[in-house]
Known about the structure:
- One of its GO terms (molecular function) is proton transmembrane transporter activity.
- This protein has helices spanning 5-67, 80-91.
- With 92 residues, the protein is mostly helical.
- The model has no long low-confidence stretch (mean pLDDT 89).
Amino acid sequence: MSSSPVLNVVRYSALVGGIGYGILHRRTLQAKEDVKAAHAEYKHKEHLIQKAKEAYKNRLVAKQSNTGIVTDPENPAFDLEKFLTKLEQESQ
């Protein structure tokens, strides 16, 4: 029993259509995963920056507690004259 040419065309058309759908579907899934990976990488970098800021702030607080002079210009208790005097004494 040989299959008719029409049946072969339908079979191969379905096969090619399925392969095409698979390729398209994989591309969309990969694009979503790429976006998720980029977002996760950004969050990781953001976390590292936050940790670095906290470490820097702790370092400033440690320096501040030793000398009693506020070295953070954002702090309302910052006194430029005392800070410059301290820097001048350290450089000598």
